[in-house]
Design goal:
four-stranded antiparallel beta sheet; 15 strands; nine-stranded mixed beta sheet; alpha/beta; TIM Barrel; globular
């Protein structure tokens, strides 16, 4: 048995080692297993400890008292969920309070040059951030970063439709000596070679997420750009090349549904022929949100696994990080350190609420605490929570309509954690 990742420090402080007793034991609900070449990885989604067991050890768990010590085995009748809730409450009490805002999702505009049928912003009136608002935002950042470095995430709309605002904010951070980095969510159409070079320098851009909806014909039909461009697909591929050549990591998101999943393998192979081995290029897939039958959901899940295997074979797998501490919040919505800045300067909590449900403005210290509380409100637990292995790392918020728990979501989250287990194990081997 080898310890690949230690338990979270809080677990060691609060729980310590479990006392052994003359009882019948079982695996705790929160243990995921993943076979690897050297044996089987066992990852505890509550304690965040990961072990490697040999094939022989994996076949005789009850004979390994170390599994009791580390809470992988618990007595029959043990209340796993109660222990999880107690640890979360303790972690929340011990968490150091901070008023610093260090993560900013900034919308230079809600306008977009594409017309995707699935866009959650459809019907949103285009609003463009002015340079005056950008200057006001700079002052807000200087006042609220708490002396820490900051991260910007340029979002939209299509953020590249208002480059002057990105330039202004980045330049002012430089002028004021504020350490910062940025990422961007973009369709990539406007990323010329010159702009990519500027982004790598002035914007401190480290990562760009670009969505592809299929091969050439499907992509051009879905995006429906406002320009008279007969082959936007080719242009975006060119721009992906410009970005990676500038040292910017490009994460290509493949939006999949049952209608385009079959051609996504062609797209991955096409990109491999075009870009070859490229350490700045990664690809991942995401199912489009929406109701689907259990049969369609299972079909899509099976095809997605095959697609991810091909992505891995082509060398475009994006390494995932394993959770190593007690998870206390879901995302930006319930984090005190994150804020969304609308083009008008209004303050929001979620990128999916870009024209409503604001809790303040960058020009004022007044805050609507009822809005902040609403974005923190958890969804009621379901019957499936009691037996779900990923329960400690799955926090559902009421405002997040797209993440209603179902079998497909649980399968996707489990697969992400399993992938992260393998990535962490490979890191461990490389470090040895």
């Amino acid at each position: 048995m080898q310890i690949i990742t230690e338990a979270a420090s809080l677990v060691s402080q609060v729980l310590g080692r479990q006392k052994r007793a003359d009882k019948r034991y079982r695996l705790m609900t929160y243990v995921l297993q993943c076979p690897v070449e050297d044996g089987v990885l066992f990852y505890h989604t509550l304690t965040c400890c990961m072990l490697l067991l040999s094939p022989e050890e994996a076949g005789r768990l009850e004979e390994l008292p170390e599994l009791i010590d580390n809470w992988f085995l618990v007595p029959e009748g043990h209340d796993d969920r109660k222990l999880c809730l107690q640890l979360r409450q303790t972690a929340a009490l011990l968490q150091s309070p901070s008023t610093a805002i260090t993560e900013y999702t900034i919308l230079p505009t809600t306008g977009c040059n594409a017309r995707c049928f699935y866009c959650f912003e459809k019907g949103t009136a285009p609003v463009v951030m002015s340079l005056e608002t950008a200057d006001m935002l700079v002052l807000f950042i200087l006042d609220h970063r708490g002396g820490e470095s900051v991260r910007f995430r340029w979002f939209g709309g299509e953020p590249l439709m208002n480059v002057p605002v990105i330039d202004r904010i980045s330049s002012e951070m430089d002028r004021n000596g504020v350490p910062f980095t940025s990422t961007i969510v973009t369709n990539g159409y406007l990323f010329s070679e010159e702009l990519a070079e500027k982004a790598a320098g002035l914007w401190r851009l480290k990562e760009a997420q670009i969505t592809l909806d299929g091969t050439r014909d499907t992509y051009n039909r879905v995006k429906r750009y406002v320009y008279d461009d007969t082959d936007a697909f080719a242009r975006v591929l060119d721009n992906i090349g410009h970005l990676t050549a500038s040292g910017i990591d490009v994460w290509v998101r493949l939006n999949i549904d049952k209608y385009n999943i079959e051609e996504m393998s062609q797209l991955v192979r096409l990109m491999h022929r075009r870009f070859g081995a490229n350490r700045h290029l990664g690809i991942y897939s995401r199912a489009l949100y929406g109701k689907r039958s259990p049969q369609d959901g299972e079909f899509l899940h099976e095809r997605q696994i095959l697609l991810e295997q091909l992505i891995d074979e082509c060398g475009y797998h994006i390494k995932k990080k394993l959770q190593k501490g007690i998870k206390l919040n879901c995302c930006m919505s319930d984090s005190d350190r994150s804020v969304v800045i609308a083009p008008s300067g209004h303050l929001g909590k979620c990128e999916h609420y870009i024209d409503r449900d604001f809790f303040g403005h960058i020009g004022s210290e007044e805050r609507d605490l009822s809005v902040i509380r609403r974005f923190r409100e958890r969804s009621p637990e379901t019957e499936a929570c009691a037996s779900c292995a990923i329960y400690p790392q799955c926090i559902q918020l009421k405002v997040c309509e797209k993440n209603l728990c179902d079998l497909q979501l649980r399968q996707e989250l489990s697969r992400k954690i399993t992938d992260a287990m393998k990535d962490e194990y490979n890191n461990y081997l490389n470090s040895k």
